[in-house]
Amino acid sequence: MSNKMNHLHPITILIGFLQTLKGLVIPGVVILVGNGFRYSFSPGSPKFMVTLLLFSGILLLLVLILIFSFIKWKKFVYWFEEEELRIEYGLFVKKKRYIPLERIQSLNYKESLLHRLFGLVKVKIETAADSGEAEADLTAITRSQADLIEAQMKRAKEHHHFEKASENDTPILAKDDKEEQIPTRTLVHQMSQKDLLVLATTSSSIGVVFSGLAAVLSQLNDWIPYDQIYGEVKNYIKFGVVLICVITLLILFVSWMLSVAITFINNFGFRIEKEEQRLFVSKGLLEKKRLTIPLNRIQGVRIVESPFRQLFGYVSIVIESAGSSGEKNEKKIVLLPLIKKKNSFFILREIFPNGIWTEPQLIKAPQRALFRYIKIHLYWSIPLAAALCFFLFPYGAWSLILIPIAVLLGYWQYRTAGFNITSQQLTIVERGLSRTTLVVWKKRIQSLTMSQSYYAKKKHVASAKVVMMSGKTGSHAKVRHFDDERVKDIFEWYKPNDRESEHTKSW
Amino acid sequence: MQPKYQLSKKGLTVWRIHAAIESLSVLVIALIACALTYYFEGPYWIYAVSIAVVIIYSFLNMYLFPNIRWDHWRYEVREQEIEIQHGLFIVKRTLIPMVRVQHVDSSQGPILKHYHLASISISTAATIHTIPALTVEEADGLRASISELARVAEDDV
Asked: Domain segments of chain A: what residues?
């Protein structure tokens, strides 16, 4: 093992410098503008001295930041010793961090444009610690160095594996292939250009377009009465309406195009690979990212169908993972931004061979629960509509439309809701606006709560909530308003029993 | 089959004391409102409303709600799971498998201590469940047995 001390690539100085600068931009601008642009560069002017002082101050600050960035870089070293990745850093206080290589859960790579110019990567090292923060960030190292870390990590893990041959993790998600000594990385899925285009064009910006259209329509509503009142300026106002419409549509179109471009660039070359117990998700055209997801940290899988994409049979797949490994510490990791639903099952089967991946036979909510689905939306829509009617009469009366919309939404959610239990797997289908199918395994559920109000009990309706570990905290899913006997089935299903636990142990 | 055990009857007293302290602060606010009304010669209905609020709040918070809560509270620690039932209007039954338990804490505030009571909190990786107002012996026993059972039921998360 090489005990050589390594520095990060010198470009780190520039990156650190730019990062510090970024934090100073806003206060800097405030100071500069706060002075009201009373600057002068002519030596005769009385403001010259102030200007000179200010700018030399800024220059000095920049130089200082640069020097600090340099020292920071100089002080940051890492090396391998005794199967540990050891890092030493710190400007004033020297800090040491030793990370046992076999504990490393994931190495996440990120390449910005600056990195790519020099063939470098940013490596984020994560261990099983639930703190959610990355254990260590190597801001810029060469590709070969990154590969070395990965190789060292694998070697340490294998070593560890031999020592503790009895220990096997992640039983439910994939079988341990004993013969498989050399880990092979297999491509699970690569997003097609067509899917990428569909993804880009139907990304959340569709919502922006709709809300934009709504805004345009509301504008029209505002204008129409004026037409009747001011007959003579009718033409002028009509022209105004057209102009506003055109401008609004133009802005919407441009912002939509932008978001299409951004989504396209961010998700370009999206691919999922699987190697033993880990998944690798890579994407990006300009800025490349590679995410490692240890399979044993995955707590649940959500298949999300937004209403628009549902029409065309497209879904996106999101996973709930313990610890972070998400981007920007998000708890949800997008495993697949867009795929045809029927293909998604193939991929999920390949990634989680022990899960059951078919369209489940759902137990549906009973009809007597329908009003409960609608009721919850009446709680917000009626007061809101009433308030709008009262304060903004007569136009506020349009808000009464909210009430039938709320009722329909409740009905839609009622129609979608369902769940299914198999021996180890719970599937919950629900709808906010998007239809979400959550698949969670019994041994990944942290706790289960069944709830029933007095009136619900009379009607034999009950709800249940499952809590999973996700991100730093938990996340939950609800089965709302089902026949209470069916909900009790979930409760009984979740109850551990002897036979079950032996089964679990044998895994 | 709901869980077997109920909380200590003394727990109800402790809840009432807590509620009484809350009622006291509501009373103070009501008195301030009355005083201001008197000083600024406000309408008389403010007195009536203030008194009504204090009475209704005290009745609900000190008498009715604690009674209902206490009636609903049940818990049972079995070999492989912990079951808790609680709630005011909505009765919730929670199941926590032993394998999911990460640690158990017991705690005791001054009022609980006076009544020789304690509460225990059961933590999983994602949730915390509290059983309030157990006698100290029960709480200690439960804490010990849960941590013992949780250790036996080892499993990966």
From this structure: 6-163, 368-412
